[in-house]
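Re: the pair you flagged

First of the two:
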Amino acid sequence: MTSHAVRPAILVTALISEALASLAHGATRFFTAAVRDVRGRRAAAELRELDDRMLADIGLSRSGIEQAIRFGRPAISISSR
């Protein structure tokens, strides 16, 4: 093989490698999001099983469960204690 024949092979190998890395990254992001979604749904289901008093004890209301799961609870200011 001459050096001219090797260069396209290296280029093709590099392109395939880059494509596979991109595909793996996308798959990782997809599965990470899926796992996060399943965990969030489970946590929301557990919180929905609590009565209103127990939710209030942890600083939540029934209407705030979804927001708390997605974004976390807001910080409690010291002055409101």
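Second of the two:
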Amino acid sequence: MFVGRTEGRLVPARGPAAFGWDPVFEPAGYAETYAEMDKGVKNGISHRYRALDKLRAFLKEEYQAAGDGGGGGGGGGGAGGADE
């Protein structure tokens, strides 16, 4: 399992209510809620991005190991693990 976490706090709703809890989550180190943020910034710090980045690194390592004759492959490690 690949887990991504984004530290932050719950605040009174701010910004568009277009996606789930985005209006009430303010990531640590930011003065905006997810709903107020530029989508590129939000997507670059989100727990989903962090989990998928771990999956990407794992797959790259497995692919390189398989190409080097190191076997690689194998199962395990499902994608996901978002902490919402």
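Residues 8-67 form one domain.

-B.
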